[in-house]
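Hi V.,

You were right to ask for the full record rather than a summary. Here it is.
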Amino acid sequence: MSNKAKHLLTADTFNRGALRMTVALLRGVNPRLALSVQNQMSGPLNPQSDANPSPKDNFRLTLKPIEVRHVVETLKAKGEHPNADPGTEMLIKALIIDWVNYANYLIELENNQNA
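Predicted structure:
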């Protein structure tokens, strides 16, 4: 059995690859929001044994709900761009699903606190 700690991946957990792609898509439209997302990439939940950054590194996000909303809105606008290639459109749709799941997770947390 592995000595590595197992981390439960929930909707507030994103991998480095998804966060990097989100930052790249946001940077030209909303640099401040892109920086907020980029700043989430510190202290991976599952650091690599060689300490090198890996697209498989996972991070627990702590963004505000309004920031998550702006991420989803910006990605949606990017996905509807007429010059987007099909591969990019598919990637953006997958990112939107991840970010909407995170938004729903935040709503659920808020509802549980108010219950």
